[in-house]
Cell division protein FtsX (Candidatus Phycosocius bacilliformis), 303 residues
Amino acid sequence: MMRKLWSSFLRLFRESDRALLPADSRQVRPLTIVVAIMCALGCLAGLSASAGFRAADTWTSDLKSAMSVVVQSPRGDADLTRAAAIVGRVAGVTRSEAMSRDRAKELLRNYGTDMSTTIDALPVPRLIEVGVVAGQTNVKADIERVLKAAGFTVTVDDHSRFTGEVLRTSTLVRIVAILALVALVVAAIATIAFAARAALETRREAVNILHLVGAKDAFVAREVQIRFLRLGFVAGLIGAGVAGVLALIGTLVFAFGASDFTSGAPLLAWTDVWILLIAPMITGSASAIAANMAARATLRDLV
C-alpha cells in the first residue's frame, strides 16, 4: 500500500513521455525561474519578519526587566550608595547598582562628538541601575515609596515609552511582511494562471481532439493542474533553497559585525526552518489551484 502511494506521488513530479498535453520547455524554464524568484522573495520576507519579531521580543524583554532611578537630592556619593541599598531590598528587584560619575560622563560622551572639558561642567545625573523580575507591575511605585520615605527626591523611569516604540515598530514590521507575502502570492497565482491559459491556447488542436474522443473539461484541467503542481513544487524547492542560503550568509555577516542591537537576535534560527519547508508545498498547491481554475475558464472559451 505504501509503495503504491509513493509511486503515485512520484508520478506527480515526473513528466511522462506519453503526456496528453506535453509541456514546452521554452515556457517551463522561464516560468520556473520566475516562480522560484517569487518563492525566494516570499521566504526572505517571512524570515525577515521572524527575525524582526525576535529582535523586538529581545529588546522589549530587556527594557521591561530594567529601570533607571534618577536621584535628584541628596546627590552625594554616600547618599547614592545608601539609596541603591534601599532599592535592592524592594520586592521584585534583582539588581541595584549606583552608577559612578565617570560612567555617567562616559554615557554622555556617546551623545556628543567633541564635548571635551565641557562635560565636566555639566550637572551629571546621579543614577541607580535597577534590574527587576519580568512581569512585576508594582516595583516602580514601591521604589518611589521607599526612597521618598528615606528622604530622597527621585524619578523612576521604567522604560515604558521605549517599550511602546519597540512594540509599534514590531507591529509595523509584521504588517509590511504580511502585505509583502500577500503581494507575492497574488503575483505568483496571476503568473501561473496566465501561463496555464497560454499553454492551453497553444495546444488548442490537442484539446479539440481530446474533446472529440470524449474527454471532459475536468480531465483536461486535471492534466494541466498536475503539470503546474509539479512546476510549482520544483520552483518552490529552488526558491526556498536560495532563500535559505542567502539568509545563512546574512546571519554570518551579522555575526561578524554584530552590534548591541543585532547580537541578541540572530537573523536565522533553527525554528525558521519550517518557513523553508512549507514554502514548496504552498507554492505547489497555489500553482495547482490557479492552473485548474484558469484551465477550466479557458476550456469554456475554446469549446
In short: Residues 160-202 form the longest helix (43 residues). DSSP finds ten helices and four strands in the chain. Residues 75-151 form one domain.
